[in-house]
């Protein structure tokens, strides 16, 4: 796993039910990524993930709720946090600047998640974003004080079909119209080329995973054959399959007793399932 240009290893002292959010904040000491509901509902914990699509093998970037994703499921992923796209020392990303200019932040607790959702959306597209795409992509981000109008206006102003009057509102943002266009994807430069080989470095260094944890084991499987081999070895020991871990949102472990019973099981993280995108006979 790689966070903020650093390769990170999770040792056996980290409990099996540790979320990526907990690891980022308490182990990596990067506190820009927030947490609130711990159920994947508020969006405060969103970070950006880059990995290879399991079917097409194409590199993809998307947003994840770090409070749901187990850190042991992040093996082979490149993780980008809010600190990784812009900060006071290195300069802020244009998305961060635009949100601030539109007064899209008051208490600021939701802002990192809002920015990282927009960043993931823009990085994951192979074409310029439209306002409709932005509007349809923030159903999982909650703001309790600012209101959604300035936030959406800020992000829509960066879209290809933004009206002139909306773009004029951010005309005095430093360098917004001086941004170079990336020759690789045609989108505004995000100054990310220095880390463009991040995922390739990880991809070439992904060994099989079998970790013995206190009271449990964690296996990383990549094929159905791997699954049955692990189950045959496990025998009658209880186990849990882990993919997106979204079941945690519905059946959240709310007391320490349930958390302990969770870590006493074997864990098998599953890769994303192939998606049916079209049917020529339909």
UniProtKB/TrEMBL annotation:
<feature type="domain" description="[2Fe-2S]-binding">
    <location>
        <begin position="81"/>
        <end position="156"/>
    </location>
</feature>
<dbReference type="InterPro" id="IPR006058">
    <property type="entry name" value="2Fe2S_fd_BS"/>
</dbReference>
<dbReference type="Pfam" id="PF01799">
    <property type="entry name" value="Fer2_2"/>
</dbReference>
<keyword id="KW-0411">Iron-sulfur</keyword>
<dbReference type="InterPro" id="IPR016208">
    <property type="entry name" value="Ald_Oxase/xanthine_DH-like"/>
</dbReference>
<dbReference type="InterPro" id="IPR036884">
    <property type="entry name" value="2Fe-2S-bd_dom_sf"/>
</dbReference>
<keyword id="KW-0560">Oxidoreductase</keyword>
<feature type="domain" description="2Fe-2S ferredoxin-type">
    <location>
        <begin position="12"/>
        <end position="68"/>
    </location>
</feature>
<keyword id="KW-0479">Metal-binding</keyword>
<dbReference type="InterPro" id="IPR012675">
    <property type="entry name" value="Beta-grasp_dom_sf"/>
</dbReference>
<dbReference type="GO" id="GO:0051537">
    <property type="term" value="F:2 iron, 2 sulfur cluster binding"/>
</dbReference>
<dbReference type="InterPro" id="IPR036010">
    <property type="entry name" value="2Fe-2S_ferredoxin-like_sf"/>
</dbReference>
<dbReference type="GO" id="GO:0016491">
    <property type="term" value="F:oxidoreductase activity"/>
</dbReference>
<dbReference type="InterPro" id="IPR001041">
    <property type="entry name" value="2Fe-2S_ferredoxin-type"/>
</dbReference>
<protein>
    <recommendedName>
        <fullName>Aldehyde oxidase</fullName>
    </recommendedName>
</protein>
<dbReference type="GO" id="GO:0005506">
    <property type="term" value="F:iron ion binding"/>
</dbReference>
<feature type="region of interest" description="Disordered">
    <location>
        <begin position="254"/>
        <end position="282"/>
    </location>
</feature>
<keyword id="KW-0001">2Fe-2S</keyword>
<dbReference type="Pfam" id="PF00111">
    <property type="entry name" value="Fer2"/>
</dbReference>
<keyword id="KW-0520">NAD</keyword>
<comment type="similarity">
    <text>Belongs to the xanthine dehydrogenase family.</text>
</comment>
<keyword id="KW-0408">Iron</keyword>
<dbReference type="InterPro" id="IPR002888">
    <property type="entry name" value="2Fe-2S-bd"/>
</dbReference>
């Amino acid at each position: 796993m790689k966070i903020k240009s650093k390769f990170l290893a999770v040792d056996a002292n980290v409990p099996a039910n540790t979320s990526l959010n907990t690891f980022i904040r308490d182990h990596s000491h990067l506190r820009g990524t927030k947490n609130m509901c711990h159920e994947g509902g508020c969006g405060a914990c969103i970070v950006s993930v880059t990995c290879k699509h399991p079917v097409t093998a194409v590199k993809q970037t998307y947003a994840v709720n770090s409070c749901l994703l187990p850190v042991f499921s992040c093996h082979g992923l490149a993780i980008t946090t809010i600190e990784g796209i812009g900060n006071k020392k290195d300069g802020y990303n244009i998305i961060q600047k635009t949100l601030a200019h539109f007064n899209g932040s008051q208490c600021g607790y939701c802002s990192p998640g809002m920015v990282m959702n927009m960043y993931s959306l823009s990085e994951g597209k192979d074409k310029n974003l439209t306002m409709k795409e932005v509007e349809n992509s923030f159903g999982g981000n909650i703001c309790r004080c600012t209101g959604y109008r300035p936030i959406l206006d800020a992000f829509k102003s960066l879209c290809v079909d933004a009206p002139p009057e909306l773009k004029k509102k951010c005309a005095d943002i430093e360098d917004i119209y001086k941004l170079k266009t990336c020759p690789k994807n045609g989108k505004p430069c995000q100054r990310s080329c220095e880390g463009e080989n991040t995922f390739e470095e990880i991809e070439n260094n992904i060994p099989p995973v079998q970790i013995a944890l206190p009271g449990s084991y964690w296996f990383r499987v990549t094929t159905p054959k791997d699954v049955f081999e692990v189950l045959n070895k496990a025998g009658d020991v209880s186990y849990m399959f882990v993919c997106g871990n979204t079941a945690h949102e519905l059946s959240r472990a709310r007391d320490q007793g349930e958390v302990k019973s969770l870590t006493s099981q074997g864990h098998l993280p599953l890769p994303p399932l192939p998606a049916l995108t079209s049917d020529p006979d339909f």
